[in-house]
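the two lines:
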Amino acid sequence: MTRDLNINVHHLTRVEGHGNIVVNMKEGVLEKAHLNIVEPPRFFEAMIKGRSFHETAIITSRICGICSLGHQMTSLKATEAALGLEISEQTALLRKLLVHGATMQSNLLHAYFLAAPDLLDAPSVFPLIATHKDVVLRALRMKRLANDIGDIVSGRAVHPITPVPGGFTRIPTRGELEAIKQKILDEGIPDCVATVETMKALAGAIPQFERETEYISLKDKEEYGLYNGDIYSSDAGTFPVEEYLSVTNEHVVAHSTSKHARHKRSSYMVGALARWNNNHDQMLPEAQAAAETLGLGAPCINPYMITIAQVVESYHCMLDSVKVIDELLSKGLKDEKPNQSPTRYGRGIASTEVPRGILFHDYTYDNKGNIVSGNCVIPTGQNLANIDDDMVKLVPEMIHKSQAEITHALEMLVRAYDPCISCSVHMLDVTFKED
Amino acid sequence: MKPKVAFFDFTGCEGCQLNKLNFENQILDILQHVDLVEFREAMDDKAEFYDIAFIEGSLSTPSCVERIHDIRRRTKVLVALGACAVNGGVNAMKNLQPIDEVRETVYGEVKYRFATLPAMPVSAVVKVDYEVRGCPMTQADFLKLFTSLVLGKQPPKYTSSVCVECKLKENECLYDRGMVCLGPITRGGCDAQCPSVGQFCTGCRGLVDDPNMDGMLEILTSHGISLDEAKKRMLLYNANEVRI
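prediction for all of em together
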């Protein structure tokens, strides 16, 4: 079909940060299909120069409020690697619990509040309060529980306080952890089961669209990898985290203030669906069964299914949180002080899976423990090229539909990736010209 | 009629916005008392006029400056939310370095491709009627201001320092644990949230009205903190305010 199409969605809603969708088609030929990133620049790499290792994570967690815990964990691990700070088993377990909480919080926020309105044809979650009050209350309850984990273990779910290089400034009490566990058993797990049912009812509204790509995530030998692991590519296998630059290959493109990434193809995907595709067999059996109920196969090459992968992953995190708490309690909580005596000064690279995908922080410290240079590679930045490639395939497939339908499908596509634009433009700005 | 309320975000992390979505226990009650007309992070709707506009983030590009003028024109009351909007927050640290150097660190050769200004508080460009401080703003603090505005009352003002609130909680002084804490010069209202869980005050709520800077520097140096390190710590959240 020869057709002209000009789509320009300015400041896409229900995503974190500022982005525009621009699609131009002339006489049936697609000239442009981009997610333009127009978020103002932050200049974090410049800000942290010269700052003390005590402050690095405080500053870099301010890259993004939604992802603050993930940035903080990755930042602390990178600083510890650079300064040779060993952490205790208890610290690692508490951090894993925090990562579970943050993953659930972010995944559920996206699935219920940002993505579900599309599946119910609503402009936001707010009208759903009248029509689906029990579901909204459940979503709020689950989000509160996930945030409780952050509040109790780290002092504050948004921009956590107590995690510092080498450990924690405060260890949660046995009673606090027991209370979280009880709440997970009483509310959290039944709510996950109910969520799977709700999503099953909505799954019919998820668009059928497929495009195979390279999937990149961490892979941990011991467990479903979120806090630790090596880099794993579905195309090329395993790489040590220290070699991240050879995987991410960040480069500046004309239409985005956030850099793009590519590895074996023109683009790759990170995030909940990439993790599912790479590590689904390490999920707890109940979560795997939920995936089957929801029609999430492995591998799944439909990017709209990211939302479903987030729901399944939240269930896994909820269940695994109980295991982590049990392990902490059975070993006995020790009132440890953080280990902040550097044994070396140099470069440290670390990676954690944050809700939107694999995150890298890389710092070099001088012999006073002050930052010489830093680099952060952000999941949303890594996904941008993949989103563009999806749009290039999707638009011609939909060309017989109305412009409004195509626009809506594109908005849903970008939203499915749950992009975190503040993060992706932690450093770059764009001047955006419309043709 | 319910007041029309809108939320806007500028240069920042959107953590303060997120904190509002984290009012899981209160959000349904809040929504009964206001008409939420614009909140891009959570909804599609847009509106022409507002009774109360909440602004998050600092202003750091020419387009930020244009947008804030437009919002100010359309709102009766404007509230700055969080450290970035109130005094520039961590963003303002870039103001301490020559702008060319900052650009080069991040962009390299293409440093002039992107327009950037020093990170400014909202009040540097338009009139701010009220503020909620902190990085992030605390939910309690926001709720106090929010209910005051809805009820037509004056919101609380915080004049004492974090140090005073910390003493009232009978916390061990973090200087005695060898930490560098900015509690003595930082505006309170957070209930000494960080020192109460063993972490130093970063100064995220900005300075008290008349900070005793000489006294602060004396505390720091008497605890063996070098003057350079002490100044650096003070600049983390107060690069637009501290002149030392």
